[in-house]
Amino acid sequence: MRQIPHRTLLVLFAVLLLAAMMGCQGISAKTNTQQDPGVLSAAPANVAFGNVGVGTSESLSNILTNTGAQSLDISAASVNNSNFTLSGLTLPITLAPGQTTSF
Prior knowledge:
The longest helix has 20 residues, at about 5-25. The protein is of the alpha+beta class. The strands form two sheets. Strands 1-2-5 form a three-stranded antiparallel β-sheet, with no helix packed on it. It has a two-stranded antiparallel sheet with strand order 3-4. It has one helix at about 5-25, and strands at about 40-45, 65, 70-75, 95, 100.
């Protein structure tokens, strides 16, 4: 009778052990317990002021919507051009999923 080498027995044992552990796991489904974060969308996405005469002003409105699955906190808003101002948006504000605010 031929003997099986010691190393082969160790490898065979490791494979059988892994197979047994995998078999004990059974069938499982991965569930996503973490919801998508809040997502801020603006409508319109772009604003165009057109031709505005020197010394006059033009006001445009915008709507912000939380299109995500969790509440969204807005604590600050700014513009990066001194020729424009931002008004009508009272901060801080929390938008629940699907909630909107306009300014």
